[in-house]
Amino acid sequence: MQGIIQQQNLTSNSLDANYGQYAKTINPDSLYLSEINLYFRPRTEERYNATITLDYEIPNGSLAFTNILSQSNSKNNYFRQQYGLERGGNNIHYYADGSDNELNLITNILNFNQKHPSQTLMQRFRIHIPRIFLLIHGTYNLNSFLPELIKLMISYHLL
Asked: Measured by CB atoms within 10 angstroms of the end CB, which terminus of the chain is less buried, N or C?
């Protein structure tokens, strides 16, 4: 079993300015400042990762089950102040936005290695079932995965 918990503060600030030309054809070097923008972007990210591996030795082979869980939560906000300076203007515009994002990923891997009694070659059978599940209050229901797995194992004469 292995797990990782990580939290990051990814807040940033920035400044930019826009400019133009007074008279392109007469004096291309005459520039004016049209607006200044100040940005504040508070952002936090939380990540949780866990891995569980179960290994079993069976006659003439082995069986391994691995479960990988990854969850990422991020909160993004955006604040902008725009100062209009064109033609003596004193305009100030304010912008704001925000979003919360959540990504949940669960991957189950079943590995079956079997040595055929009459041959020295290994027969390898691997099932890789990646799925993205919406976790409800942090729980995961195996009832949707196990029936499919049992049917597949029966079809390959593993049960």
From this structure: N
